[in-house]
UniProtKB/TrEMBL annotation:
UniProt key word Repressor: no
Protein name as catalogued: tryptophan--tRNA ligase
Portion of the parent chain present: 67 to 384 of 384
Residue stretches in coiled coil: none
Enzyme class name: ligase
Sequence similarity: Belongs to the class-I aminoacyl-tRNA synthetase family.
Keyword vocabulary terms for this entry: Aminoacyl-tRNA synthetase, ATP-binding, Ligase, Nucleotide-binding, Protein biosynthesis
Length: 318
């Protein structure tokens, strides 16, 4: 079977972008692929963090994976820092990574600008090398990611090719092959819809855990009232009717796409249903669809958290 790996950082709250762009798609994929889903706690320390919060967020993230439907009888679920080979391979890969490749990463530029000089550690720059090691370590065929990770995945591919060329080629040729054997070059799996869920307060920025404004995102664990309030206050526009794909209406496109994904309807069905609506009639519709979709996950989450806490206690008693 083809292999696939993916992960989410245990920082802040898991939001609708992480869910629709990544976790929700894993549930289908785990039936077809050999899947490894990890909690990338080593990525979470690239910006300032609190130790205790990180441990709690790591457990919460594992519980969210399970509550969303990740099945441990089909997929391997683990914490990145528990497998030391991720960091060991990262060191080896960094010796083959030209620094210019890292300097041009958009996420580094954005996050370092926001964090301010004092908080920009070397790890924020070298983060994509660790991500490459997460993927290449397992000889993964595919990596399901949101659009924001496309550039990092491209770097992973280039790095795999570079290592294959630098260290694999000669040996392989002696054996009569075409060159390039050390690492498999992985392909991205970008979902057709949900790959870039945008902020509720600015349709041109992606919904993000690290945004300081909680109003900008729907967290998977937001209560009904909080969801209703965030939708009530989210940014809209003053055009008539609602439509997909109008570049002058990024917020409208984003809200319709979210509605499409959580209601399970097709894009055409949503376009037709909403074309003559105004925001006053659409907002209760999307609010209900969000609440209905997230409710079962939230119920299961409590159960998953209790099970994980029990397991941790059992381990400690051993
Ligand atoms: P941060 O802002 O701290 O980087 P994040 O919200 O980007 O946090 P990550 O843990 O970095 O979350 O990303 C986990 C997964 O979620 C990745 O596969 C990423 O591509 C996907 N993802 C993150 N944000 C979005 C989004 N707005 N829309 C779709 N997918 C997203
Ligand atoms: Mg991110």
């Amino acid at each position: 079977r083809k292999r696939m790996v993916s992960g989410v950082q245990p920082t802040g709250s898991i939001h609708l972008g992480n869910y629709l762009g990544a976790i929700k798609n894993w549930i289908e994929l785990q039936n077809t692929y050999d899947t490894l889903f990890f909690i990338v706690d080593l990525h979470a320390i690239t910006l300032p963090y609190e130790t205790q919060e990180l441990s709690k967020a790591t457990r919460d993230t594992a519980a969210i994976y399970l509550a969303c439907g990740v099945d441990t009888s089909k997929a391997s679920v683990f914490v990145q820092s528990h497998v030391r080979a991720h960091v060991e391979l990262m060191w080896l890969l960094s010796s083959a990574t030209p620094i210019g490749w890292l300097n041009r990463m958009i996420q580094f530029k954005e996050k370092s600008r926001k964090a301010g000089d004092e908080n920009v550690g070397v790890a924020l720059l070298t983060y994509p090398v660790l991500m490459a090691s997460d993927i290449l370590l397992y000889q993964s065929d595919f990596v399901p990611v949101g659009e924001d990770q496309k550039q990092h995945l491209e770097l992973t591919r280039e790095l795999a090719e570079r290592v294959n060329y630098l260290y694999g080629g000669r040996k392989w040729k002696k054996l009569g092959g075409k060159g390039g054997t050390i690492f498999k070059v992985p392909e991205p799996l970008i979902p057709p819809a949900g790959a870039r869920v945008m902020s509720l307060t600015d349709g041109l920025s992606k919904m993000s855990k690290s945004s300081p404004s909680d109003q900008s995102r729907i967290n998977l664990l937001d209560s009904k009232d909080v969801i209703a309030n965030k939708i009530k206050r989210c940014k809209t526009d003053s055009f008539t009717g609602l439509e997909f794909d109008n570049p002058d209406r990024p917020e409208c496109n984003n809200l319709l796409s979210i509605y499409q994904l959580v209601s399970g309807k097709t894009k055409e069905e949503v376009a037709k249903e909403c074309q003559d609506m105004n925001w006053g009639s659409f907002k209760p519709l999307i609010t209900d669809a969000l609440i209905d979709h997230l409710h079962p996950i939230q119920c299961l989450l409590l159960l998953c958290l209790s099970i994980l806490c029990m397991k941790v206690l059992q381990e400690q008693q051993k």
